[in-house]
């Protein structure tokens, strides 16, 4: 259990990509991490693109990033909603300033773009937002997982095993 005592925020909103939320959450729990689902409202049921539900444990305003070791942003259409909340942008910016692992997959790059943290960073995403990522100042690389310091990015569900192995490795190495 190499991630015992690690706490991770997993952001959630309606229309998240089901696998891109649940695979990372379960993988981190397998490694011993505590993962909290955090949405606009606490104890709200959010539904993924394919109908899988997720119940938020906390509202954005309930969490303090200083209490967490990392943050995950799922893909799907949820990132387009998540990036509109100032609390989400502030969380991502604070995690970035503290050099804590930030995981993003697929369309989740939209949240990092809105947080304005991609200048001169190497990342990947779904090819559908490649131009958005590059216009935000990032170097886009077409690989299953790309690590640039504390930023861990991935393209889509088939890349989840490589993405989560890498994310777990980075989190385990961070401030051991």
Structural commentary:
The relative contact order is 0.17. A hairpin with a 5-residue loop joins strand 3 (45-47) and strand 4. The strands form three sheets. A seven-stranded mixed sheet has the order 5-2-1-6-7-11-10, sandwiched between helices. The chain has one domain: 3-Layer(aba) Sandwich (Rossmann fold). The protein has helices at 18-30, 78-82, 86-97, 109-114, 130-135, 160-173, and strands spanning 7-11, 34-39, 45-47, 53-55, 58-59, 70-73, 102-105, 122-123, 139-140, 145-148, 151-154. By secondary structure, the protein is of the alpha/beta class. The chain has six helices and eleven strands. The protein starts with 6 loop residues before the first strand and ends with a helix. The longest helix has 14 residues, at 160-173.
């Amino acid at each position: 259990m190499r991630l015992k005592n690690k706490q991770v925020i997993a952001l959630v909103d309606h229309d998240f990509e089901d696998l891109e939320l649940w695979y990372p959450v379960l993988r981190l729990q397998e490694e011993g991490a505590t993962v909290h689902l955090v949405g606009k409202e606490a104890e709200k049921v959010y539904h993924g693109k394919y109908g899988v539900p997720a119940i938020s444990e906390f509202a954005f305003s309930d969490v303090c990033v200083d209490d967490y070791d990392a943050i995950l942003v799922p893909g799907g259409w949820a990132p387009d909603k998540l990036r509109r909340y100032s609390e989400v942008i502030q969380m991502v910016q604070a995690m970035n300033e503290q050099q804590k692992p930030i995981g993003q997959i697929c369309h989740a790059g939209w949240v990092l773009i809105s947080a304005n943290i991609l200048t001169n960073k190497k990342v990947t995403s779904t090819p559908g937002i490649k131009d958005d990522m590059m216009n935000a100042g990032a170097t886009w690389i077409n690989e299953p997982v790309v690590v640039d310091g504390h930023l861990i990015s991935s393209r889509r569900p088939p890349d989840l095993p490589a993405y989560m192995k890498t994310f777990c490795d980075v989190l385990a190495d961070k401030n051991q």
